[in-house]
């Protein structure tokens, strides 16, 4: 059935200014209204609860009969779900609001606007005198906000381009990230050492904390990359290179982080530790993929039996994927790689088994969830920035930003020189520029920094400030300028017209030809237009000859 | 696009026994596997956390360099989402499993089987020596498990039959529930008083706790009614009478519960309190509806602007509805009525504004969520039964069960006698029997009993045992026998063939003719078969003449 977007699009554009103003007013009122409960609820609850209990006991003991309360207010027992709903509603309304102001969303990427909104909300909460809630708490981020985005990416990952460029992607993800970490960490340590001892306390910063900081800051962030690249419609090759790198570097980040965090106490790292580190990297990455594949097959197997209970089909996709992620996290394996592997594994089988309505539900629900999650992450980045605590050190921050840029450029250029020897389709200078420029940092780096223990890392606040600065720099400066630069350099974009047909066939045909070569989808033949049918038959004929 | 159910249904029936066995094996393994973490995690965590912290501190103090851990297990930091996922997966697999055994699901309603599964899981957890987690914790039940079911019911509530029978429904919901509460409470108190003082401690039970208990046990439960009536395909009138009653009696239950709970301490209830009680009832019910309508209109208004962000359209429906429920709960108004009002209010406007894919997503996601929620509730009822604590008192329990049945029958017969004077379509004896027999109790009664404070209600355990017995009796005995009885009495069933066309037209035409009489849905005309088009044109023509 054709979507009703067209007819209602026409109705939408005829909407007058007062209505938009009214909507923005509603948004502002909600913002104000949300500040007070959000702030109020973050105040320590235990004290209030005890106070309530003692008051209740004294009331009962000397009971004076009072009138039956016809109306009473009890915010406490619903405050958690209420706050969560308010944040989600705020994120959704923001997303809605930006699309109503087309000029703004054309210039500034959505991620920047959302960070600004977060800064505003954080500022409002602070002005109201309340304590800012710890919104980018690592547990909340890694267990609730990140998985939907990664699952959406993994489930709809274009497998063919990903596999074709796997070698390149792995080179960038593994070697590139290692290079970034050691280059930035080493040079940062050197700069800190040459600082005069009595002038600043940078002199006390040892090598291993520097390397730990560098390993946090060197990984390209999938959320930021998705958010920015989504709007520039770059060609598929570059998109899959940068995005694939941002997904696969998770294993490297996990190992480096744990390695340096573990040994910052000891102060020394031996050759044995390095060898164990390499083994750990293999375990973390391959183990993560294995866990994902196991759950993927479980989901595929379960979907064979859902013909009588179509209603809960989407649930299996969500639950098995989430459990794959949690199981990988439980063993300190790479949760992101597990989730990607799970989504990519189950998809061809599940799609062949489930009903079309379940397919639509899964697709749209994943897109909805990941969209809201992404919006929330950027808003929370803004809120967390206001929260602090900050320790600004000009040298440290500027050197970090510069080193990040320099190491990224050198890394990409160097690796491309090596990679191009093995590639058929070489990466041009323009491609290298986009890959280097698209290496954005995001909330994963912040959450990892947030996880650091203050006791073992007294420089934690300085690290967090530097991380936030790098994130802001990449998201604002690089994020805002990448679109004009892409147009200026005339980089090949995604081919719009052909995309629809190609994508349609590739996403329909590939699962059929790879897993069930003899089951030609009759419904597909009947319901797609004649042109698609021709392409489909050609593709199948080509596959078999 | 035609659903693929047909073709895969044929593939499904050809499935061999070993495959089903393999699936059941997977289910059993998951069951076993789930018991240990579920039980282990319910053990007090605080002690373990402190232990871990002290151990970590001593480790750092006398740091002996150990090898880098290549693989480590850390269940603690993911245990909450992991357990939630396990429970959801268990519920889904159970639902799947029952439909694979058609003979069983034909005899025993799903709700009974699920309670049995819950009893098994609870028993396994206890056998493993772990503490059973407090699964039917009132907060979890009222804030997480109940809203999806009510929203699904409210959003898809057939408005016309509901409004046509509103008077009858309100009579049953308000007067019927009040009658039940006072009849059962009063007679229960009388029976307790005539018990010999030294024989049992029933003599100590005062009147107000009895009335409180009776008010908890007298409300018909929407979840149980939905679960059982879904399978018997009763005609629409009876369905809407019993189901509507189960929804609208929430206000009565809320007021009676708070009234008796508040004054059980004082021991006396004056005329003023009764008057305040009546006022409170009006405030609770109409206030709840008002809150729901406000949020409904907010959602309708927001949906006008979502033409550029189709992805997050379903989210607004969910978030606004949930916030309506929470806002009502915050003011101790009727959350259920708020949710029903919100869903029913927003639906015509939202459906006219959102895309078809969003519509499918909302519909299927609501059905999926409410289905899983319902399954979980029954499983948890079983688990909570195993958990206890129980205090079995033969007299109390048997008298309660008998009085519930007797008061229900007398109430329905008496009220129908009055109602039939005002109805055009009279309720026959068969109808009265089904209405009386379909008055099932469920988890809401249990959760309300669970909420009671042990200090003020020393008989709490006895109450809970009696509540569970009544629930089991209604769900098992009445639930299992209602289907054969319906067939025996040859009660009119839902008309299958006509239903599709009528429902289709009614659900498509009514919103159009009521809110946008001039916008005939062109797409509807083009995409439905010629027959539907004729009916549609006839209905529109009939509306206008």
UniProtKB/TrEMBL annotation, chains A, B:
<keyword id="KW-0472">Membrane</keyword>
<keyword id="KW-0406">Ion transport</keyword>
<comment type="similarity">
    <text>Belongs to the monovalent cation:proton antiporter 1 (CPA1) transporter (TC 2.A.36) family.</text>
</comment>
<keyword id="KW-0832">Ubl conjugation</keyword>
<feature type="signal peptide">
    <location>
        <begin position="1"/>
        <end position="40"/>
    </location>
</feature>
<feature type="transmembrane region" description="Helical">
    <location>
        <begin position="463"/>
        <end position="486"/>
    </location>
</feature>
<dbReference type="GO" id="GO:0015385">
    <property type="term" value="F:sodium:proton antiporter activity"/>
</dbReference>
<protein>
    <recommendedName>
        <fullName>Sodium/hydrogen exchanger</fullName>
    </recommendedName>
</protein>
<dbReference type="GO" id="GO:0005516">
    <property type="term" value="F:calmodulin binding"/>
</dbReference>
<feature type="compositionally biased region" description="Basic and acidic residues">
    <location>
        <begin position="47"/>
        <end position="59"/>
    </location>
</feature>
<dbReference type="InterPro" id="IPR006153">
    <property type="entry name" value="Cation/H_exchanger_TM"/>
</dbReference>
<keyword id="KW-0325">Glycoprotein</keyword>
<keyword id="KW-0449">Lipoprotein</keyword>
<feature type="transmembrane region" description="Helical">
    <location>
        <begin position="140"/>
        <end position="157"/>
    </location>
</feature>
<feature type="transmembrane region" description="Helical">
    <location>
        <begin position="396"/>
        <end position="420"/>
    </location>
</feature>
<dbReference type="GO" id="GO:0098719">
    <property type="term" value="P:sodium ion import across plasma membrane"/>
</dbReference>
<feature type="transmembrane region" description="Helical">
    <location>
        <begin position="432"/>
        <end position="451"/>
    </location>
</feature>
<keyword id="KW-0112">Calmodulin-binding</keyword>
<keyword id="KW-0564">Palmitate</keyword>
<keyword id="KW-1133">Transmembrane helix</keyword>
<dbReference type="InterPro" id="IPR001970">
    <property type="entry name" value="NHE-1-like"/>
</dbReference>
<dbReference type="InterPro" id="IPR018422">
    <property type="entry name" value="Cation/H_exchanger_CPA1"/>
</dbReference>
<feature type="domain" description="Cation/H+ exchanger transmembrane">
    <location>
        <begin position="89"/>
        <end position="487"/>
    </location>
</feature>
<feature type="region of interest" description="Disordered">
    <location>
        <begin position="39"/>
        <end position="59"/>
    </location>
</feature>
<keyword id="KW-0050">Antiport</keyword>
<feature type="transmembrane region" description="Helical">
    <location>
        <begin position="169"/>
        <end position="191"/>
    </location>
</feature>
<dbReference type="InterPro" id="IPR004709">
    <property type="entry name" value="NaH_exchanger"/>
</dbReference>
<feature type="transmembrane region" description="Helical">
    <location>
        <begin position="108"/>
        <end position="128"/>
    </location>
</feature>
<dbReference type="Pfam" id="PF00999">
    <property type="entry name" value="Na_H_Exchanger"/>
</dbReference>
<feature type="transmembrane region" description="Helical">
    <location>
        <begin position="364"/>
        <end position="384"/>
    </location>
</feature>
<dbReference type="GO" id="GO:0015386">
    <property type="term" value="F:potassium:proton antiporter activity"/>
</dbReference>
<dbReference type="GO" id="GO:0016323">
    <property type="term" value="C:basolateral plasma membrane"/>
</dbReference>
<feature type="transmembrane region" description="Helical">
    <location>
        <begin position="266"/>
        <end position="299"/>
    </location>
</feature>
<keyword id="KW-0915">Sodium</keyword>
<keyword id="KW-0812">Transmembrane</keyword>
<keyword id="KW-0732">Signal</keyword>
<keyword id="KW-0739">Sodium transport</keyword>
<dbReference type="GO" id="GO:0051453">
    <property type="term" value="P:regulation of intracellular pH"/>
</dbReference>
<keyword id="KW-0597">Phosphoprotein</keyword>
<keyword id="KW-0813">Transport</keyword>
